[in-house]
Amino acid sequence: MTTTSSGRTRGNVVTITDVAKHAGVAASTVSYVLSGKRTISATTRARVMASIRTLGFHPHAGARSLASNKANVIALALPLRPGMHLPILMQFAMSVLTGARSVEHDVLLLTADEGAAGVRRIAGSALVDGLILMDVETHDPRVPTLLELDRPSVLIGLPASAEGLTCVDLDFSAAGAACVQHLAALGHREIALLGAPQVVYDRDTGFARRTRDGVMEAAKTAGVTAVARPCEPTYAAALEALRSVPHATGLIVHNEAAVDHVLTALRELDRRVPDDVSVVAICPDEIAERATPALTSVPIPASEVGRRAVELLMAKLDGVVVPNVTLLAPNLTVRSSTGAITH
């Protein structure tokens, strides 16, 4: 084997052994850098990656020489951004972790907001077999990169266009519509959506926009008045939002962290639930059930969504053609917080 002045080999395929000799490490160390199955020091990893670049070694080709051609690791990109409710995010993360372990895969959790660059870095490192991405924006800057990668990916969320992608989520548009339809059937003619914090709408995060759109379209169809207000997860913000919709007799709360604050603020305003105002929430069942009164709600099926995401990714790794979009139908459970309008 000969090398060019740039260090690239000529005549033969570069192997892990070639990279190991160039980097001054054992071949097993190169394998661990590629597979991520053991922790390697940052200094050693940097040296190995420099040799990979210098020799023109292709990580994907190298990975194929490893047993089963798999790292058996899934990357979960869950950027911790302002306005997101950590407990519900962790429910999604745990469901992905549980689903991955059931098929003998580990999960590499990525919480830094690195955008497209982070996706490209992880996919190019050969540390993972595929990627699952959360907190999807309507015009998500990571999407063009995903379409270029040779590693499969699944989005928990729905961008403006799903062409060439694989997406799974609750049908938030239908969830918002179901809440409106329930309140309209009870005779409520003025409805207000108290939604996510403003920063979530500013990012045009898909689930928040789709819920709002579903509420407004369903209200138009039902012939009722609807307004949408962002709501920070504080008592003061909930009180301000409620004071801005004094005539609403039906409330839809799509902000898990604000639910208790909204109910407390309603008591402060002497608006009884459900006698004066009916409340529907889009939130996990445990939040709806522990509220006083118990809330009529559409649950967020984090466990099911996470499980489906892993199943779709595993199918893609096996070469199976999967749907571009999988949306789970909402299920509204009636509890004590909603009733027929009496005035």
Describe this structure in words.
By secondary structure, this protein is of the alpha/beta class. The chain has 3 domains: 2-68, lambda repressor-like DNA-binding domains (434 Repressor (Amino-terminal Domain)), CATH 1.10.260.40; 70-170 and 302-328, Response regulator (Rossmann fold, 3-Layer(aba) Sandwich); 172-298, 3-Layer(aba) Sandwich (Rossmann fold). 43% of the residues lie in helices and 15% in strands. It has helices spanning 16-23, 27-35, 42-55, 59-64, 86-102, 115-124, 143-148, 172-185, 198-202, 206-222, 235-243, 259-268, 285-290, 302-317, and strands at 2-3, 9-10, 73-77, 106-110, 130-133, 153-156, 167-170, 190-194, 225-229, 250-253, 278-282, 296-298, 325-328. A 6-stranded parallel β-sheet has the order 4-3-5-6-7-13, with helices on both faces. Strands 9-8-10-11-12 form a 5-stranded parallel β-sheet, sandwiched between helices. Strand 3, helix 5 and strand 4 (106-110) form a beta-alpha-beta unit. Helix 1 crosses helix 3 (42-55). The longest helix has 17 residues, at 86-102. This is LacI family DNA-binding transcriptional regulator.
Unreliable stretches covering 5 or more consecutive residues: 1-11, 60-68
Largest sheet: 6 strands, parallel
State mean pLDDT (0 to 100 scale): 89
DSSP strand content: 15-25%
Number of strands: 13
Q: How many domains make up the 3D coordinates? A: 3
The CATH top-level class label of the largest domain: Alpha Beta
Shape assignment: elongated
- CATH H level, superfamily name of the largest domain: Response regulator
Annotated CATH topology of the largest domain? Rossmann fold
Structural class: alpha/beta
Spatial arrangement of strands, main beta sheet: 4-3-5-6-7-13
Give me the CATH architecture of the largest domain, please: 3-Layer(aba) Sandwich
Radius of gyration: 25 Å
H and E order? EEHHHHEHEHEHEEHEHHEHEHEHEHE
Domain HTH lacI-type: 14-68
Keywords: DNA-binding, Transcription, Transcription regulation
GO molecular function: DNA binding
Organism: Hamadaea flava
